[in-house]
Design brief:
two-stranded antiparallel sheet, 2 strands, alpha+beta
Length: 67
C-alpha cells in the first residue's frame, strides 16, 4: 500500500485553493444542465469521450470520494 498524499493535500488546503474552489462550486453545473465534453482513460488504456456514452444511454457521472 502506498502512503496517502497528506503533504500535497495539506499544502493545497493551506494555500486557500480549497476554499476558492469550493466557493465557486454553486456557479458550475446544476442538475439538468448539459455536461461539458470530457474524455478520460478507461482501465484498458483507451480514451473514451463521455458524449459517446450518453448518446447510447442515460448516463450519470459521480465525482466524489469515500475517504
Amino acid at each position: 500500500m502506498s502512503a496517502y498524499n497528506y503533504e500535497t493535500f495539506d499544502g493545497y488546503v493551506a494555500s486557500g485553493d480549497e476554499q476558492r474552489e469550493f466557493a465557486a462550486w454553486p456557479d458550475l453545473l446544476h442538475a439538468g444542465d448539459a455536461a461539458p465534453e470530457i474524455a478520460g482513460t478507461v482501465l484498458d488504456g483507451d480514451q473514451l469521450a463521455l458524449s459517446s456514452v450518453w448518446q447510447r444511454r442515460t448516463t450519470v457521472v459521480e465525482f466524489g470520494s469515500f475517504t
